Every structure is written in structure tokens, then in C-alpha cells.
Recover the amino acids of this structure.
């Protein structure tokens, strides 16, 4: 009910985003990277990840937030409201970056949230419900193959807490050794302290680049996300006999690499068969063993991602991919030694009252917006399990993401930050 | 003309192979490996390669050979003949091993050659033409992408000598820095000292496992190689826009990984279209960039090997592969940023008089033999450019090679060593 413009002393002053400072922070954060600029590689609990975390915590304190970290390194910056016993309003995203990606994915939702807090402070706003900025641990699955690790745990995944006890990275370092290296998991392998109860937050918001081309193409500055598509990911391994590339004649071969190639094309085929534009499928990883030009691959490893806004339709694709993997193995005389559906999460719906608050904020700011479905995975998917959830998308260049070409204009980011700040203030007072 | 049995003092004593010692040496050498046993990984100028070289030089000295190394680390062990001004008779092979391969490829032709020398000594043989055992540097292309590096140079490849000046491994170490690390290339980048004149040898022989299943299947202990098939290798790169696996809809994609998958299957198709069993083609390497499960590949790297005993037919396959790469790029909207035919060597014929000498030796030893074409690449292919050449194959388990399952029975190896020793003695006296 109370509009933030009701803060009488400020209602003449428009919401002002410090674009220069925000852009500088985005650029500075991108320097914590294992890949040379403009590419960003920032992997969970690496030296650069640890440095970037320190950078974020410093900014949080600079914004007057009190900082807390949980046992896996989710970072919370809290601005205590006038009624601190009420469930707070939270916003945030991630700062980890897959190999050779860009500097905006996730980052806009963390640094943008801090700038939203700064704006509200400049504006003289006093929250009723406490406001929190959250930096989630490992939204990306890079190191341990688990996406949204921090938010999944926060949402109370007992299965993940158990699985982490036997989770290792490709260098055979255990999850907990890696966490300890970064200064977390101090109480050993019991990380149930990370779980949050349902109702811990009154609302959770995430600001993010669209990672698709629609807003840019249509010239619309803001999207209000109504649902997050349901992702599934699979790990597949084929095994053959290998052999010398010159000596083994074609009929005698069972080439695990060609099985992988055929499966990759089958993924594309099954996705296109769904008949819906909303079905997508990707083979992002193909690894051949031993990986020599004169050696027939004796082993191949394939990782597949399939998504849809319709869970049933997506599961049909997953089942077709499984069937293809079996058929290819039979046809080529290779062994399908692994077909593992690593995750198969249900989709999430945004909360209607949060959608309304975001829509009101956009209208008040005179920003055109459209409703949109998110086909990308976000921490919001898991936060929706314990809190009403909403997401704000802003345009990005050609829809590029997960590449160094990823780019969002500072004016577009500023629009998102304004909508976020205004929505936070509304929700904080309600 | 003079049969070795004319050495009167020995002609009652049959040629005796010290199987136990030879097998022990094969096992010991396999321990110089970057991969755990039974796999062998021994990469040019690595610590383990350097140790293995020391092991070979010690064995050479133990066999009474005088040891010489050239500027790239080809190792020569010489038994001076009674007429040292005559061109000598040489035999040898390689001991480098591609990642996760076995312990017999190449090794049998080096340790077997040394055992042949030991046999001839035990037998009381005195060479007329000097005998030499050669260990060739980097038959495998593992580190610098160049196969038969040592023998190609020995055969006088000016092009390779030039190319090496700008050749780097995947860690960006230059060829010459790597060579210096191993104690070679002491005179800088001028390695023309490695070149040998045509006529430097009266004959060159190589003993090798078949790397195919035919001898084992047919129960024939010896193959005499009449020709070595002509190999071609290609490096291909596709580039697309990449993007987020969830956000970019299928019609908007130009997936460099799917282009690679499609090309791999096209290689198989074009090879099978040749209609000849002798045409083989392999995609041993597919690398996707950035290589994350939730990222559309923006770049793919493919390495292809195509071989045939018929050079023209092989070149038709190479051309079809090139055409497919272009068509796939067009169809998928990706850029074919590289299509590089790295080498396209002509085949080599064995020398008729050496074939006869090997055949005579087999008959004398009462060993059944067959004539065979080598579809695998060997240093003999290049030695044939400067010397009459011949090769001896022995059976190996199921034809496996370039895998840890690679195996040759010591009795089969001993047969090959006997044929080699007897042929060396014949050629030395002629
Ligand atoms: Mn991402
Ligand atoms: Mn993200
Ligand atoms: Mn080999
Ligand atoms: Mn070999």
C-alpha cells in the first residue's frame, strides 16, 4: 500500500543510479578471472573466486550491510528493517563464471542489488522488513557438476547435502576439501546449517540479463519473469575397443567417438521433433579418450542439457535421448557404460503479488515491460521452494551469454536496478 | 650369398632368443610412463621419455654398441663391421607411446633389435657391413602434432626443419626449448646435422607388431611388409556464436559442436564410400570450447586421420571430407575457420632384395610367413626415402594397439627377433 514516494523528504528526487561506479565495479570484478580479459573464468573456491568474494563482502560493508556467510559460502548482506522480526525481502544472484564466459551473467544481479541498496539509502529510504542481498555459491556446475549448489542447499536439499560427501572435482579434490581451502565448511561435513525454513523470506527477487535476444530485438527495457523452465542434464559414456587408426579396418571398429557424435545429433533431432520453440537441447561437452589423432576413441563422455517450460515435454525428450543412446550402442557395438540423469528439476512459477509489484514499479518508472518465461536456470528456481519469487530481466547484446561477447549496456542495467530498488522498497513496506 | 650358418664354429647352435630377458626389458621400459600400468604414456622429451632413453642407451652399451645421438635425439648404437667403409645395415623403431597406449608398439622393434644383436654375438657372428640399432625420436605425433619427427628429419625434410622453428606444444613450449630440456639441440635451431644422405645405409629393417588382427586370426607367425599405406591427417576448426544452453532457441543457434559431430560422421561415410577395405578414416580428437554442459559450443577442433594403400583413393576421401566441412559450415551457419591438411605422405614400397632376404630367413627358420601391406604409419616410411627398406610384422592380440590391451606373446616376439637377426646377418655379409 505505501508507495516509496510517500517518504516525503525524498519524493522530489528521482531514483538515481550511479552508473559510473556500477560499471567500474563490473569491470573490476571481471578481473578476478583465470582467463584473459574480455573472457571471464571464475570457478568455485578457486583463488580468483576467493578474491572476488572478498571484493563483494567489502562492497556489502561499504553499503552498510552486515555480512554473514554460511557453511558453503553463500554470502548475505543485511540491512535491518524497522520490524526485524518480520520475514525479510531478499535479492541476489551469483558471481561464478563458467570457463571463457562473460562479465554480466549473475554479476548484474549481485552488484545491481548492492547499487539498489545504495540508491535506497541515498533516497533516504528506511526499510520496514529487513532487506538482504545474497551472493549464491556456485550457480554454475563447472567444478562439481552441480548447478545452483548454494540455493539448492538453502532450499533444504537433504539429497544434495548427502551427495556432497562423496563429490569430487576433476582433479579428485573433494567438495569439502575445496570448501575448506576457501575458508568454509568449518564444522566438517554437516552442512544442514545452510538449510533455510520455508517462510524465511517474505519475497525473493533476482535481477539478471535475459541471456536471449528478445528484449533487445523488440526494444523493450524490462521483462518480468513469470516462470523458470525445467532443466534436465545427463552424463553419458560409451566404451569401445579403441585401436590404431591405421591398422583396424572399418568393419572391425566399435568407435566410441562416433557413438558420441551420433548421440549429439540425436539430441538435436529429438529436440526439434518436440515441435515447440520452447524445447532446447545442448551437447556442451564431448570428450574422447585417449584423444590422439591416430587412435580410435575407446571411450567417450558426453554431457547433455535439455530444457523446456513444459516438464512433460522435456521428459519425453530425455527418454528419447536415452533410447537413442541405447540404440547407437547396439548398432555400433559399443557399451553404453553410463547414462545418468544428473538432475531433472521441476519448473518454478513466479509469485503473482511479486509480479504485480514489479509491474507497478516499471509503470511508475515509465519503463515498458513484457512478461517472459526464463529458459535459463537461476538460483530463483530453488529460492521459489522456500519463498515467493520473482525475476527481472534486462536486454543483453544479441542474447549472447556464456561467451566473452556477453554484454549489457549500463543504461539497460540501470533500468533493471531502478525496478529492483523500487520493488524492494514496496515489498519491504508491505 | 654367405649364409650365417657358414660361421662354422656356430652352425650347430640354433638361433636362441633370451625370452626372459627380453620380456623383462619390455616390462621395465613400460614403467617409464605418465599413466598407471598397464597403460603407457610416454611423451617426447618428458621426464619419463628421458629416463627411457637412458635405459635404451645403457642396453646398447651393454650389447657392445657405440652410442651416438643426433640433435633431435635419434639414438644410434653401432657394431662396427669388418669393412666399416661400406654402407651399414640398420634396424630400429620408436619407444614413445601415445597417452594410455600399450607397451609393445615400437618397443618390440627397439628391444627386439638389441636382442637380435645379442643373439648374433652369442652366435659368434662377425659383421662385414656395420650393424646399427636406431631408436627414432617421436614416431607418435602426441606432443607437437608431427608424426615420425626423427625419421622425417633423418630423411632430409628441409620443410620440417623450418617448421620446427615455429612449432609449439599445447602448453606453448617451443620444440627447441623442449629438446634442450632433454639435452638435445645444443647448436640452436640448425638441425640440418640430423639429415642423412641417400645411400647412408645399405638396408633398413623394422620389426613391429602387426597392429591388426590378421596374423593372429590366420595363425601365421610372420608377415613380410611389401608396402606402407599412405596417411593423411587434417586439422579442422569450426566457429559459432556460442551462448547459453537454456536461453538461445534452436533456430537461432550455430553450434560448432554439432558441426564437429556431423563432420566426424561424414568422415566415416566417405571412407565407407570408397568401397575398399583398405581405406580407413578416424576422428581421434574432438574438442569443444568452452566445454561446459550449459554452454553451446562456440568453437570445435577436430583432428582426422585418413589412410589407404592407394594414394589417389585416399586423396579422394580427403577432398570429400573438405567438401563436407564446407557444406556443414554453410548449412549450420558456422565458420570453417581452419581446414589444414597437416600431412599427406606418399606410400612407400619395400625393397625387393630385402623382401627376399626376409623370406629366405623365415624359410630357414621354418617359420610360415605371408606378404602384407602395412596400413599403419612407421619410421620405415621415411627411411625408405634414403635407404632400401623392409619390415617384419608379428601377431598381436586381437590386433589391438594404442590401448593398454595391446599385447604380443613373447614366443611371437622371439620369432620376429630371429627373422630380424638372420636377415641382418645375411645383409651384413652381402
Ligand atoms: Mn550462467
Ligand atoms: Mn546466471
Ligand atoms: Mn603407434
Ligand atoms: Mn609404432
Amino acid at each position: 500500500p505505501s508507495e516509496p514516494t510517500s517518504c516525503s523528504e525524498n519524493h522530489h528526487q528521482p531514483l538515481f543510479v550511479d552508473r559510473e561506479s556500477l560499471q567500474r565495479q563490473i569491470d573490476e570484478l571481471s578481473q578476478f578471472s583465470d582467463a584473459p580479459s574480455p573472457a571471464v573464468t571464475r570457478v568455485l573456491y578457486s583463488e580468483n573466486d576467493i578474491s572476488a568474494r572478498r571484493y563483494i563482502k567489502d562492497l556489502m560493508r561499504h553499503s552498510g550491510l552486515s555480512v554473514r556467510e554460511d557453511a558453503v559460502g553463500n554470502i548475505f548482506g543485511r540491512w535491518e528493517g524497522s520490524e526485524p522480526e518480520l520475514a525479510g525481502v531478499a535479492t541476489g544472484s551469483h558471481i561464478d563464471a563458467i570457463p571463457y564466459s562473460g562479465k554480466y551473467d549473475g554479476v548484474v544481479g549481485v552488484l545491481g542489488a548492492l547499487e539498489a541498496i545504495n540508491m535506497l539509502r541515498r533516497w533516504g529510504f528506511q526499510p520496514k522488513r529487513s532487506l538482504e542481498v545474497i551472493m549464491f555459491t556456485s550457480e554454475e556446475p563447472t567444478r562439481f557438476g552441480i548447478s545452483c549448489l548454494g540455493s539448492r542447499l538453502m532450499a533444504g536439499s537433504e539429497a544434495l547435502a548427502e551427495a556432497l560427501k562423496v563429490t569430487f572435482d576433476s582433479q579428485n579434490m573433494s567438495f569439502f576439501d575445496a570448501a575448506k581451502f576457501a575458508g568454509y565448511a568449518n564444522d566438517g561435513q554437516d552442512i544442514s546449517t545452510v538449510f533455510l525454513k520455508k517462510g524465511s523470506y517474505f519475497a525473493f527477487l533476482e535481477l539478471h540479463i535475459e541471456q536471449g535476444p528478445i528484449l533487445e530485438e523488440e526494444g523493450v527495457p524490462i521483462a518480468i519473469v513469470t516462470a523458470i523452465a525445467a532443466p534436465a542434464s545427463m552424463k553419458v559414456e560409451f566404451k569401445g575397443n579403441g585401436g590404431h587408426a591405421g591398422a583396424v579396418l572399418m568393419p572391425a571398429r566399435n568407435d566410441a567417438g562416433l557413438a558420441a557424435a551420433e548421440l549429439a545429433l540425436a539430441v538435436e533431432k529429438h529436440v526439434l521433433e518436440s515441435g515447440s520453440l520452447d524445447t532446447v537441447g545442448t551437447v556442451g561437452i564431448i570428450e574422447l579418450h585417449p584423444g590422439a589423432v591416430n587412435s580410435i576413441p575407446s571411450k567417450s563422455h558426453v554431457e547433455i542439457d535439455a530444457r523446456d517450460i513444459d516438464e512433460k515435454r522435456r521428459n519425453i525428450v530425455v527418454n528419447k535421448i536415452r533410447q537413442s543412446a541405447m540404440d547407437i550402442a547396439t548398432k555400433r557395438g559399443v557399451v553404453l557404460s553410463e547414462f545418468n540423469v544428473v538432475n531433472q528439476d521441476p519448473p518454478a512459477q513466479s509469485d503473482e503479488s511479486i509480479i504485480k509489484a514489479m509491474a507497478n514499479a516499471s509503470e511508475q518508472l515509465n519503463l515498458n515491460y513484457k512478461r517472459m518465461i526464463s529458459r535459463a536456470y537461476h538460483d530463483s528456481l530453488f529460492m521459489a521452494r522456500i519463498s515467493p519469487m520473482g525475476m527481472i530481466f534486462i536486454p543483453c547484446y544479441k542474447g549472447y551469454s556464456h561467451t566473452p561477447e556477453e554484454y549489457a549496456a549500463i543504461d539497460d542495467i540501470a533500468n533493471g536496478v531502478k525496478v529492483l530498488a523500487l520493488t524492494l522498497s514496496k515489498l519491504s513496506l508491505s
